[in-house]
Design goal:
Elements lengths: L10 E4 L7 H7 L5 E4 L8 H14 L3 E3 L8 H13 L4 E6 L1 H13 L27 E5 L11 E6 L4 E6 L7 E4 L9 H20 L5 H23 L4 H17 L6 H13 L3 H15 L5 H10 L6 H15 L16 H10 L12 H13 L2
Parallel strand pairs: 1-8, 2-3, 2-4, 4-5, 5-8
Antiparallel strand pairs: 6-7
Protein name: Iron-containing alcohol dehydrogenase
Cofactor: Fe cation
Keywords: NAD, Oxidoreductase
Amino acid sequence: MHTSNWHYPTSIRVGAGRVRELPDACRASGIKRPLLITDRDLGHSDMILKALDDCQRTLGHCALFDQVKGNPTGDNVAAGVQAYKAGQHDGVIAFGGGSALDAAKAVALMTGQRRPLWDFEDIGDNHLRADPNGIAPLIAVPTTAGTGSEVGRAAVITDEQARVKRTMLHIRMMPRVAILDARLTLSLPRHLTAATGMDALTHCLEAWCSPVWHPMAEAVAVKGMQMIDRHLPRVVADGQDLEAREQMLVASSLGAAAFQRGLGGVHAIAQSLGALYDHHHGLLNAILLPYVLLANQSSLQSQMSDLAHYLRLPTAGFAGVLDWLLALREESGIAPDLSMLGIDDRDAELIGRMAFADGCSHTNPIRHDAQGYQRIFCHALRGL
């Protein structure tokens, strides 16, 4: 018998052009003075300026905060909270890729708290420290198909002083409305389309491999992988394929919903590398995924046998899944090993310790120790 809590409450609006409903989504969530949070690259883009204008004309007020790094930091969050309070805002619009969405969710968390941000790191019952009434309502508009943060209750933020990534988690951080408008992803370049798409796949696959009991998440993970198998090659080949873009946006949301079951060693290592070297999270996941699967192989025979069947792969079992993954990764133009990013083994021991300490390692199918994660990292440096 099991005792579990499952949460899938986000209202999702899917369809090309539905970003025009952003003011309505704000009103439906009781937001009259939103702060739109995005990253530095998107801050002055046409899509952001249009969204700002629509909200200002309909709601009467909407301001912009665009000082979010590619791997958002505690300082980014603090600056966002300051902007929120200075503008007397009453809600947050998270608009952009996973970094912008995570930063916006952390800002929403901190708008009404008295403790510092790191006191809410996802360890034990730390989420109970938060005043739920002090968490601002959120609307999320993703512009990449990768993290699925628009339906998630967590935000990953870099603690630059400690050189680690920390996960903040609270059910009230889950956006009330997510708008999945594939037109917003059409300008995403091929390499980011590939990296974010493989990020979504990693979420689904690590959730599938997790030992946690969560049948709903298992089913969602399989559907997400089936959609990615069909549509990631299409969007990598043709970035203007609107139907495939929309399917990948949905698959990305499914991946985030699935990892309520947990993630694993891929994220444990990738988050450590991201904190140390500031590389793109999705790309790190894409490179690391086959190496962690190989390290977990002894515990994944039945899961991989089922997955090969569900994906209708030509080769059964673990070998079939690995062959499929490597082929998809190559077709997407993903680097085969970490050395291609300029990473070397000078910090190998530290990375092993950081990965072992990372919360994602707790739901890896095998509880590798620090030396085990160090070996996986070194394997990912050398290549297959």
